[in-house]
Amino acid sequence: MRKNSIKNTRINMEVQRELSEIIRTQVKDPGLKGVMVSVTDAEVTVDLKYCKAYISVLGSPEKKKAAIDGLNRAGGFIRRELARRVNLRNTPEITFLPDNSIEYGVAMTKMIDDVTKDLKDRETEADGESE
User: Fold this and answer.
1) Dihedral sign computed on CA atoms, order 18, 24, 28, 31
2) Is the pLDDT of residue 111 over 80?
3) Where does residue 117 fall: left (phi above 0), alpha (psi -120 to 50 degrees), or beta otherwise?
4) In this structure, how many other beta carbons lie within 10 angstroms of the beta carbon of residue 68?
5) 21-26 contacts: CB < 8 A, separation 24 or more?
């Protein structure tokens, strides 16, 4: 796969920004009621035919699945709105995918905190025994 050019990177950022705005203000799907949805990344292919939009949803796994399904159902509407807002040669076909990187980051931070707490506890025990 080719490295992203500056132009492709700008297109990705613009598509991500517009998708966020469209989802926040115009999509009325029942699967999105009561959940906070954010577009964490958008990857548009070089030929502008396809786009992978990574979605982070705050809530339970059932809410995440319902939100992704709702976005995929509203894909035609979102694509049409994106075409109106962003002037591209082709409007990409959008695939919404769950982004689990935030949950992964939180889990890793918790593990690191647990390890450092354990190390501090061992150090205080060792200091107490040596006195």
Assistant:
1) positive
2) yes
3) alpha
4) 18
5) 21/85, 22/78, 22/81, 22/82, 22/85, 23/71, 23/78, 26/77, 26/81
CA torsion sign for 78, 50, 44, 104 is positive
Decide: pTM greater than 0.85. Answer: no
Which tokens hold the place of 37? Answer: 């949805």
Contacts of 111 (CB under 8 A, 6+ apart): none
Max CA separation in the chain (angstroms): 75
Reading the block at residue 5, the tokens are: 């050019």
Mind listing the pLDDT tens digit for each residue in 12-55?
999 999 999 999 999 988 878 888 889 999 999 999 999 999 99
